[in-house]
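Predict structure. Input: Quinone oxidoreductase, 325 residues.
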Amino acid sequence: MSDYVMSMPKPGTAEEFQRREIATPVPGAGQVLIRQDAIGLNFLDVYHRNATYPWAVERDLVPGSEGAGVVEAVGPGVTDWQSGDRVAYTQPLNAYASARLIAADRLVRVPEGVTSEQAATLMLKGMTAHYLIHSTFRIEPGMVALVQAAAGGVGQLLGPWIAAKGATAIGTAGGAEKVALARALGYAHVIDYNSEDVAARVGEITGGKGVNVVYDGVGKATWRGSLDSLAVRGMMVSFGQSSGLVPPVPMSELGAKSLFLTRPTLFQHIADPAELQHRAAEMFAALKAGIIRAEVSQRVPLAEVGRAHTALENRETTGATVLIP
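Output follows.
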């Protein structure tokens, strides 16, 4: 069977993905060829597909930013990897492929006991959760954090990880099923944003004080409630916009409570190969210790990626989805 990619001829809808046959890539100097077992699905892929994040190419963009598989060949100068090694990665674009090339220093080793599917779902979401609670706003015992979309891919990791650090995690979710899931993950409180006022409930839970930090990957639909939920000198971390872009925030909105606002992204936190290896090691250690879980909720053939995008955008998924070449 020939290799292939799922590409977009131009920015557009999920129905416009095209399967394109390719010759099996040959690794050049410093490169590794991976035969992919599983590819993670993320809202970042949607942003690339529809050009929320502008395209750097004229056509035939291949989305996808995380995956896992087996090394099939290495190029000149590569000494850290050999054929048969199980590896995973996260980097922008080109993951929607049955086989792909990647720079050797962007790979991490998949530990024994961790499946390719687990690794593929964790590389972007897991290391996002890692930098959010260790670097962007470091969680300490006794703190209170609000996580928007607690039943989503990153939210399912943030809640139990925050709780394991001795802090209180408050989550939001839409509907009884997702609320129950978030509670089972270790959130101390879960607010149903379909039927409750998030900021008002946060005020009740915290005795009017508000939370130290909000981790908000939803964006347009939630930013107002996120700001209103913060305590004095709290920080709003806007790390995504699955509901749309956050409108401009007047500085006076922050001055009322001396708030902090930041918009970090993962790839500035793993650009250094040593930092990539450090974060991946701590993330996999948390998985093996049972602090976080990597459960795949949906498996979709890569050739049907359009269907997976539609389900993700319509909020019909819970937790992680993997694409299988």
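The chain has nine helices and 15 strands.
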